[in-house]
Amino acid sequence: MRIAELGRRSGVPVPTIKYYLREGLLPAGELTSPNQARYTEDHLRRLRLVRAMVELGGLSIAAVRDVLGALDDPEKSLHKAMGTISAAMAPPDLDASDEAAREVARAFVERQGWTPRPDSYAFKALVAVLTTARDVGHERFTGVLDAYARACVPLAEADLDYALGADSEDEALENVVVGTVLGDAAMAAIRAIARRETSERRKDTGSPPNPEPDC
């Protein structure tokens, strides 16, 4: 297919496709003339993947390049890809240096029967959250973490089931990317819907106000 058809089928404007080509996010097409190239279904699939990471995941071009590098790594694995994707989605100024928050995070992780990995993005992100919660006077926020953990274990299982429900390793790795990027966006949306619905139910079935005391 020509670049115009690639843009039409992917929903990505042609100037953006050319930019991705220059940045190395999309492999060059097969030249059919000095100014024309032919693209394949593989280009279309990679372009849709890049679009998901940029538009829904909010990843920078540099972060997308890192993720694609993990996908194209001859030593690639699902485990490594998940770590690369998580690191790519990390804020660049993540501060996880607070020792008190690190101890709280370590205790929480161990309480779940998990292995603390202080150098991982996820652990550092948790430390940053706990530090912020304390700094804004919400130390009791730590009380919801165990409930979050109970909710997240089946979500992690669903993520892995989605990734492994593929016909090839390449497709499985792409599923990790899409599942991570789209999964985070979907969970934020679903959580907001569930919170609204729960609030509505509590409002409709809440206890009546306390009666005035007898005098």
UniProtKB/TrEMBL annotation:
One of its GO terms (molecular function) is DNA-binding transcription factor activity. InterPro entries: DNA-bd_dom_put_sf, MerR-type_HTH_dom, MerR_fam. Residues 196-205 have a biased composition (Basic and acidic residues). Residues 1-70 form the HTH merR-type domain. Residues 196-215 are annotated as: Disordered. The keyword DNA-binding applies. This is MerR family transcriptional regulator. It comes from Saccharothrix syringae. The lineage of its organism: Bacteria, Bacillati, Actinomycetota, Actinomycetes, Pseudonocardiales.
